[in-house]
Amino acid sequence: MQKLHRHCLLLGAVFITMSFIVVFWDEVRVGPPYPRTNHRASSKHLAQFKLRQAHRKHLIKELCSANSSLNYRQKSITLDHLIVDDHHRVIYCYVPKVACSNWKRVMFVLSQNLKAPDGAPYLDPLDIPLEIIHNSTVHNTFKKLWMRHGRYARPLMHQKLKNYTKFLFVRDPFVRLISAYRDKFAEPNEYYYYKFGFMILQRYANISQPPTLAPEAFRAGIRPSFSHFIKFLLDPQTEKEKPFDEHWKQIHRLCHPCQIDYDFIGKLETLDEDTEHLLKILGLDKHIHFPPGYENRTAVDWEQEWFANISLADRRELYSLYETDFKLFGYDKPETLLNE
Predict the structure, then answer these.
(1) What angle do CA 230, 235, 237 make, to 5 degrees?
(2) Torsion of CA 331, 268, 288, 258, to 10 degrees
(3) At what angle do helices 142-149 and 154-163 cross, to 10 degrees?
């Protein structure tokens, strides 16, 4: 009897052990419940992202409907900043100083219009040389379509604007100005010195005969300051002579959000997250790797330092000049700069 009792205990222990092994193996095979938690987190994140996009688009529609001066006719809009990819049915309005170099690279890869030296289309955005990226004649733009077909291009353009996915990326307007100055005037940029810097020094730095060449001027310690640049922007004579350069032209004048119903509005301040979602929306997240951001990006918290030598009156006038961009794209009014 005792021997039978021991056998029962032994069999029970074996059964419990085997049951534990089976349960453990099932946990390993099925996996821990993390994917379900991640799915919930992912769904919540997606919902937040959709709300953010809805809010950005609502701000634009609200301001456009309230401001009659923004509702000029669509035929008056400029066309050269709208890059088209017919293969994926995408239209990108590029804004200089808002990650546009990398987005232009991506558009080249998508369209496969640009060929590498070996004759094959570029597959990696980072393989495309910088000098090609900013060559506007290489991109497939609405302007090129208009030049090719004239007024007969208008129905085709309307059809693309209606049916293609349209997107742009924006940035805090004042920070974008700082970035434009750093890129074009803080370093010896020969083209921008010749086109603007020489004149800025004459008019706003009171230097009657600045050096003719940028390297010569910089060696002599002569360069347009940020204050001179702001004076140049605020001078009514500037736009009377020629329109603003694209690097400091207001975003709404480049991309016309009151005339074009953009499907996606990204921001440089949320570039990585917005880019990830946009590529998923386009179904391209498995095919395109967006180039990483650069480390030398102008930071928002630099504004106070950069505007330290700009008078309060000039700061307020500058805000008026870019106020529409601040409001359209949901950027807070820089109260600390405007109320000191």
Answers:
(1) 140
(2) 40
(3) 150
Distance CA 228, CA 245 (A): 16
d(Cα 91, Cα 98) in Å, to the nearest integer? 16
Give yes or no for a contact between 164 and 104, defined as CB atoms under 8 angstroms apart. Answer: no
Residue 141 φ then ψ, to 5°: -115, 165
Residue 169 main-chain phi, psi, to 5 deg: -120, 140
CB atoms within 10 A of CB 107: 24
The CA distances from residue 262 to 164, 165, 310, in Å, are 10, 8, 35
Per-residue pLDDT tens digits for 286-308? 888 888 765 556 766 788 999 99
At a CB cut-off of 8 Å and minimum separation 6, what does 199 contact? none
166 sits in which H/E element: strand 165-170
Q: Do residues 161 and 145 lie in contact, with contact meaning Cβ atoms separated by under 8 Å? A: no
pTM of the model: 0.83
Q: Are 255 and 249 spatial neighbours (Cβ–Cβ below 8 Å)? A: no
Helix (H, G, I), strand (E, B) or coil at 85: strand
Q: In whole angstroms, give the CA distance from residue 253 to residue 154.
A: 20
- The pLDDT tens digits for 158-186 are 999 999 999 999 999 999 999 999 999 99
